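Records of this kind hold a single protein each, on a pair of labelled lines. Below, a sample record shows both lines together.
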Amino acid sequence: MLTNLSVRNFTLVNQLDLSLEAGMTAITGETGAGKSILLDALSLTLGDRADYSRIRKGADRAEVSAKFEIDGSQEATNWLADQELDADGDCLLRRSISSNGKSSAWINGQMVTLSQLRELAEMLISIHSQHEHQALAKATHHRQLLDSFANHSKLLKKVSDTHEQWSSASKQVELLKAKFSEGQERLELLSFQVEEMRSLNVVENEFSDLEVEQKQLANAESILTTLASIVEVLEENENLNLQQGLQQALALLEKLPVKTQILAEAETLLRSSAIQIEEATASIKRDAENTELDPQRLELVEERLSQIFHTSRKYRVKPDALSEFCKDIEAELASLSDPEASLEQATALEKERLDSFLASAKALSKSRNKAAETLVSEVNGHFDPLSMTGAEIRFEIQFKPDQIRSKWGTDEIRLLVRTNPGQDHGSISKIASGGELSRISLAIQVVTARSGQTPTLIFDEVDVGIGGATADTVGSLLQNLGQRAQIICITHLAQVASKAEQQLLVSKKTSADSAESQIWALNNAERIEEIARMLGGANVSDRSRENAREMLQLLDSDAPSSA
């Protein structure tokens, strides 16, 4: 459950530290006082997109943190352990947005991504909006509503996975069919290309090796002349060469009567140099012996290079890549040599994967039908107390494997309603009035919230459009729901607020140049005044106070029954 909410510099809130309790909590206040700001701040902590205009004027950063007690949520505890974000009974979510456009999120003091924040938040809290009844007109919402109630996420994943596998196999079949229709023309082209490449018979690295050889052959005369000059400097010059010079230097060093350490080291270096120069001279002589003038070989090499270069330009392939290109077209030619077999194999795989997808989709459809029976039964049971006697909803689920194949399965799902006995069921958007739509939505939200595993549920003015005895029923429904989960309800109705164990009041204080929203928990006397205001308006009378007192006494004397 949500135990603490802390808000700093968010819109009209300067500083807020709020403690929340188990059971049902009502949040009340006049229109425009800032009740929605509290919900927006909490939503930011739960991973909503950052709106930097919400930073309080004059501040450079807004920060919101929410503390949850998670002892009762094994799912959240396991998730935190898997993410190495363990908590000892409590879990702290924190979000900060800066005026420079930066946003940061933390879980238990460790920085996390927004996707991680959202993933955990879904296990801890669920927000039911006053606008949810508008979604009832959308077919996609009908499916989402039913799947959420059925809680068959493993089935949904299996359907999604098998659909992706079938879709991939189906695309491959279509690709092979297209290739098959063009196959003969492509086959002839590839056969010609392979024959030409095999005739050329380029081996790996041949082009680069030939380029090196061509440069050597083309410059053989110059290379031989230069090497001869080098050998003369090193060894053959009669007047002075490097080897003679080093030997003379070593002979002179040997005649010295005394040698310092420095001279001894110099002598060692000279002897080493003499050996290295001898080895270098031998290597140069061997290379000179291997270098020859061969015009015929040069002509052959240049002709071969020309052939390779011409072919590479023809196929728009780098010369060094011709060998790999040959292997690729040979492989494609092999695959086209028996296109019927390839297509037959791909078609068989597509059928196998389609069968697997349809089997999982059928199991999903069966689970949906079973969940629909339970959901419809429970929701319809709430309509009489909500002053909708004879109203009824039902799901129409049609398994259409030939027309519908998506990652959500093969079902066409519609939520139908009748608002009076004897009526035919029809589209909810065409039959239900605004007030009826609100009550249908409320009944569905209460049932789905009761069946879910989320420990904290927030209802944001879901009681809009109702009043009187119906409002009292709504309050009782939320109160009973509070025995199973923590309920936080933003409401304008005294009948609903009076059912809460805790009541928070939101007010706005304004001055000439600023406005600030504040919120605090009401004691018994303050609750009487606030309930009286909600009953009677701005001018609170003794009679409205007495009515408020009676409503709150009923709360104390009547323990809520389980629903």
Remarks:
- The domain at 2-130+452-522 is CATH 3.40.50.300 (Rossmann fold).
